[in-house]
UniProtKB/TrEMBL annotation:
This is tRNA-2-methylthio-N(6)-dimethylallyladenosine synthase. InterPro entries: Elp3/MiaA/NifB-like_rSAM, Methylthiotransferase, Methylthiotransferase_CS, Methylthiotransferase_N, Methylthiotransferase_N_sf, MiaB_methiolase, rSAM, rSAM_horseshoe. Monomer. It is found in: Cytoplasm. The lineage of its organism: Bacteria, Bacillati, Actinomycetota, Actinomycetes, Kitasatosporales. It comes from Streptomyces badius.
Amino acid sequence: MSSGNRSEAVDVQKSYEVRTYGCQMNVHDSERLSGLLEGAGYVRAPEGSDGDADVVVFNTCAVRENADNKLYGNLGRLAPMKTKRPGMQIAVGGCLAQKDRDTIVKRAPWVDVVFGTHNIGKLPVLLERARIQEEAQIEIAESLEAFPSTLPTRRESAYAAWVSISVGCNNTCTFCIVPALRGKEKDRRTGDILAEIEALVAEGVSEITLLGQNVNAYGSDIGDREAFSKLLRACGKIEGLERVRFTSPHPRDFTDDVIAAMAETPNVMPQLHMPMQSGSDTILKAMRRSYRQERFLGIIEKVRAAMPDAAISTDIIVGFPGETEEDFEQTMHAVREARFANAFTFQYSKRPGTPAADMDGQIPKEVVQERYMRLSALQEQISWDENKKQVGRTLDVMVAEGEGRKDGATQRLSGRAPDNRLVHFTQPEQPVRPGDVVTVEITYAAPHHLLAEGTPLAVRSTRAGDAWEKRTTEAAAKPAGVMLGLPGIGAPDPLPAATAPACGIG
């Protein structure tokens, strides 16, 4: 884009909105898209603008059964708005764009730009080209053009950040289309990762989440099977970095050196999200998951031996093709043995383009639903029982933004414990900010959160809190219509059950 066009965009203050569907990868990509647009002179539309922006970008997921229907429904609602607003542009990117390509513009000819997972950095150029040429621009790269972390970013949080260490996946799980859309695994240089983390810490970030499609396979590019554990230990040497998390690992690559690094590195949190998907060896084989129940439970046992207080969560698919009642009971057995703090449970649905979609033995929906309800009830009770063990413990909670929906009415604040459990606590007398750390005693446990009803034992102001305050103050000073810096996702953690494994992570 020429300097003249950029100046014009700034003067007019064109606004943008990014709508994100799918997994953590998509959330992180959307931060990049926002950064690119702001670098090109656009400003973020006010929250809740609902399409009332000059540019609306859909960052899509392709692996849910009705992903395309959801996209085209939303595009249809924007069509009359676009007709009334000359100059409004609509862009579609992400996994569905990579998969469907020309189909999007055929079904929704009012779309201006279609781009894929490998070339998100081209969005501003494509928007400008579409405006000048007055025709849709479709550009889908077949391989990665630039590692996403080299692109500008508008991060959603001032105190917590995603840091991508790899893209793509070398696995061939039969329920997942991600490798076909994001390509083979490509690892980022360790020095570049650590440099980004150090820069984030210098800006006030105190918690980072290492992100990858198969995060603990990091190092496969260079043949170093211990590269991920070395990276965790290197993170432990970064001064000012208080919390390190990662998502999502694969049991196949979860080696003893990773467990040792987690246990021996103080700022690596006692939390593990590791997808199991099924407890049945027969179904795991059909899924092309390269481990079996005994191997998975053995990892859990080793993690607990090294970190007794670790909170372990997982993903489980119910009703995979061919699943018998006996297979399902093996999953129930594995859940009882593993005692997950939380599990994202899903009813299997066909993912177009995956081998599983064409398998024999598709399970009737009513059978899948009944099994799902049984599994959910079991896990709900286990989650509650495990949370009850936290009552009486003293925990350091990092204050979060927007985690507690009832906080305003209850005069409480919310945040995350080291093991990532959600904690609601009584608001202390002194001011606290997102990113600050409050020490509390747990007095009550529910299945999905903990409560500290007494007066907090201590409050520690942090550089992360300073960064949040600075960013919020700067946002308040911006002209109306610009929303810069108000964190909306808090500390990165497993997404809600509706979206957690939507991208096939793990």
